[in-house]
Amino acid sequence: MAIKTKSERGPAGTLTVDDLTRAIKNSIDRTGMKEEEARAMAQHVLNFFGYSERIIDNVLEPEDRDAFYMLEDSGILTTEREETTLYDGREWRIHYWMFRKDRIAELVEAQRAKEEAERMSSVYDDVPEDFWASRREKAEQPK
After folding, report:
1. For the chain, what is the domain count?
2. How many angstroms separate the CA atoms of 19 and 53, rounded?
3. Which of 10, 49, 79, 121 sits CB 3.0–4.6 Å from 14 for a disulfide?
4. Residue 81's domain spans which residues?
């Protein structure tokens, strides 16, 4: 199965590995989840969904479900429940997982802004410390 990795927004809000990686990094661990871990989790989760908007909970193993609950706590995933009546009259509940694309877009934008702020250093960051010391000395001298 091919996974789209370019971070271009498709017409229907296609979710990419890059976007989900950024959202995971920005939501789960504010102290800095490693890029490789976030990307592995993003690929793992996207593999369950494929091209679907939602998946049925029954396909998940317990450890996968734990990861989904963690993503639900961070606002990336949400659940939906459908109830149907079986032929014999019993009620049957089906649980689904879905992406919260609006929340993911917020987290992606916040992560991009954070990355941009880190890239955009102040012009003063490049000025050597001894320059500031000489400027202070000149300011302290009486005129």
Report:
1. 1
2. 16
3. 10
4. 17-140
